[in-house]
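Regression report. Comparing outputs from two consecutive submissions.

Submission 1:
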Amino acid sequence: MGRFAPSPTGPLHDGSLVAALASWLDARAHGGRWLIRIEDVDGPRCPPGTDTVVLSQLAQVRLLPDEPPIWQSRRGAAYQAALDHLVGSGWAYPCACSRKDIAEAIAARGDERARHGELVYPGTCRHGLAGRPARAWRLRTTATLSDERDRRIDWTDRRLGPQSQDLTLDVGDFVLRRADGLWAYQLAVVVDDAWQQVTDVVRGEDLADNTPRQVHLLERLGLPCPRYLHTPLVLGDNGEKLSKQNGAQALDLSDPLAALQRAGASLGLPRLSADAIGDWLGQAVKAWPFRS
């Protein structure tokens, strides 16, 4: 079972289509089903109607789900149940820290480590709030509850090979529910992947760094871990990842087959001779290089 999980913050662009096509091809190459999940937990960033635009774009290139799409904005009860489980088992705890508090705590111990522009949480509230009001909920990233040894995650990507990360040192205890009450991506994605019985997560290489956190969460929730495949990124003219944040233009679907062919080329597919979308997709499934 595979899935494509776009955030409807804007129309799909060339990079989005590459991700959608990769997950669709992988599911079909393995004789599996393919799902669409609208990841709209961050409601303020999702303009009304954008989800409809995204679904329409996918339909134009014949990437149709085998089941009706789901919307994460309607799944709050499931995320709350998962958080309750983690709190009850001692793995999740309330956090009173603001970004300023975190920066000051890190500076006080002479540590200036930052990760992708984000400060690594120093575990300030892990042992209590010291009378301060809770703002968010975090997940412990220690090896066990009884000690604070680092939690190292080793996993294998189907394209990138063996991967490893010291989750405690490189990430720190991460947020499950934000101070504004919104659910964090990490919790929502693992809960929904398990609920939808996703066996293979296929997504862009920029999301590989999320995998250790998701593996840790899955284990803490007692959920099965899918296989992971992270595909090459589509880069803009400036050499950076093509994204809505850096001005990626909406997908040009004046010629849907040509759009698919461009996406296939980004995934390393050979040039396929087909005059219709259905024929091209059928050939692309047979040419999909990640069949193991």
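Submission 2:
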Amino acid sequence: MRPSGRELSEMRSVSIETGFTKHAEGSALIKVGDTHVLCTATIEDRVPPFIKGSGLGWVTAEYGMLPRATNTRMRREAASGKQGGRTVEIQRLIGRSLRAGVDRVALGERQITVDCDVLQADGGTRCAAITGGWVALRLAVNKLMKAGDVITDPLISPVAAISCGIYAGQPVLDLDYPEDSDAGVDGNFIMTGDKQLIEVQMSAEGATFSRDQMNALMDLAEKGVGELVALQQGATA
């Protein structure tokens, strides 16, 4: 029934390669099917002006897509002199999702920036960026702890994200691009490792959906996030 031949509750193959770049304090290349996202984490001994002197740390994110991440070339946003609305919305989502799993007091007055660059897109780029971004963040925090700059682990819980939707009338897990572009309902679910919700983005794309269908999507999302968290923990062990 699915274009990929997957079962309704079956995710695409997922791999996470850590230490992918040489210079960043934390880095991970996450591949979710044909969606590939490079995530790097940078530690800086500064915070935004609005929390300076508070003793609180900050985690933020930036997101972008390479010109040929998709079927046709996209113009670099830098060439137009501004970021598009979609880019701004996604990087804000990544930032607040990752912050939900951080004890900012334990982090101390420093900032970690997680850069998420989409090398290849086939649906679910924001979810892959959040999942891979947490791995890069975990590795960066590990370095802080090893150096003794942080005494208590500031990462409260893993954070992962997965898409679910109604495709051909059925609830499905982890939409790829052919499904995403034709889904009646499309949603992104961001959760902590203990299945606490951080954010849910749901919209009907031409068809309404019932409470029962929403519950079915939640069940699929919990299953998918559980699998992703296990992969995150394995990659950072």
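Expected: both submissions complete independently.
Actual: both completed, but the second showed a warning that disappeared on reload.
Relevant detail on submission 2: The mean pLDDT is 96.
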